[in-house]
Amino acid sequence: MRFRLTPRETSFYDMFAASADNIVTGSKLLMELLGADSSARAEIAERMRAAEHAGDDATHAIFHQLNSSFITPFDREDIYALAGSLDDIMDFMEEAVDLVVLYQVEELPKGVEQQIEVLARAAELTAEAMPNLRTMDNLTEYWIEVNRLENQADQIHRKLLAHLFNGKYDAIEVLKLKQIVDVLEEAADAFEHVANTVETIAVKES
User: Fold this and answer.
1) pLDDT per position as a tens digit, 43-55
2) What average pLDDT does the structure give for the chain?
3) What topology is assigned to 9-203 in CATH?
4) pLDDT score of 7 more than 60
5) Which family is annotated (predicted)?
């Protein structure tokens, strides 16, 4: 790590960790949605909406701290990128839950549980990685594994699309379900964006 003569604002590390922990909360709500009947989904959506608002607050706090700090722990554009990508993850997860409720989906297609399991694992890895930004230690395995998970998510997504277009569903149902699985795929992509940003930061700081 590069030696610095100037002090750095360290509260960013705690805020990134809090944001990532909130994403774990969102992933658990997604898992809960899988086992819930339609009558329970509205309440889960309310809790997910609250988690998404908490994520927004965390992102705004990072941006406020960034705008008021003269010294930052790493490049400002990387802080913006990392905070924004973490926020995107929560936005996509909340959107997926909201769509399930709004579209009154009775049964999610087989394979969605695999998508959500991948997101839950990526959330755990991200929450474990954020505190390591302080030292830049033990991060290589994190971004390699998240990239592997994103590739796995791509494969699951393609299989889900093939399943949706196999003629079992009517056209309107296909449109509804496709939008949900597409948003979950976007969440997987956002996890990869976070990992790629962390890799960029680590390379610059090495």
Assistant:
1) 999 999 999 999 9
2) 92
3) Methane Monooxygenase Hydroxylase; Chain G, domain 1 (1.20.58)
4) no
5) Belongs to the UPF0111 family.
DSSP 206: -
Range 48-69 average pLDDT: 94
Distance CA 88, CA 187 (A): 7
The tokens describing 185, both together, are: 């795929």
Domain boundaries, the chain: 9-203
* pLDDT above 50: residue 4: no
SS3 21: helix
Q: What is residue 130's DSSP assignment?
A: G
Which DSSP string corresponds to 57-122? HHHHHHHHHHHH-SS-SS-HHHHHHHHHHHHHHHHHHHHHHHHHHHTT-SSPPTTHHHHHHHHHHH
Q: Rounded distance, CA 144 to CA 149, Å?
A: 9
